[in-house]
Request: fold
Amino acid sequence: MNNNISFQSRIRLVPESAFKQSIKRCRNNVVYPWTVKQTVCANKAFTEGVYDCTALGINDGHEVLFLHLCPNIPQNDNWSKLEKYIMENVREKLNPENMQALILGSKRDNISSPRSTGLFEFLEGVLKKLNIPYSKFKGGDFENHLSYDSVKDEWLIGNKLLDIISDTKVFGSVENAVNRIFTDVKIADFDELTW
Reply:
């Protein structure tokens, strides 16, 4: 894919309570059991409870292909089928000339979910194969929630730690906060990280 990104996504880190408020009217929820069957393609979508799973959103500024995949579900074991599914849906449902993505999740050394990191890294590899620029939020000790709104071209990452530590000045900056919440963060050149 040849990407000519002409838009910049804003990525906002928000308390879980603010996230829950923001999704009240959104009907496009990627729900359990978190396989490709629950994938949503819409102008606005969300998912909750990303812990050892991987959430992946690929957008073209108008629509988002939104997946939430659990590493412990047998339907997610065939990674070549997952790759084929993503590639076909990206080509059919999104503008291939104007795509970007956000990937979030994975828990390293999780005894109850040994495939967690492998699934995340596999999906990250699919983004690289497709030459889709992306921002990455990997690992950490917290459950997260993720939404995308194409009207605002905005991702929301909801995290309960921000409900507990409600004064964002404690972190000093949003960059410090994401580095406290996640173990590996990469913000794409065209994305903006903010509160």
Q: What stands out?
A: The radius of gyration is 15 Å.
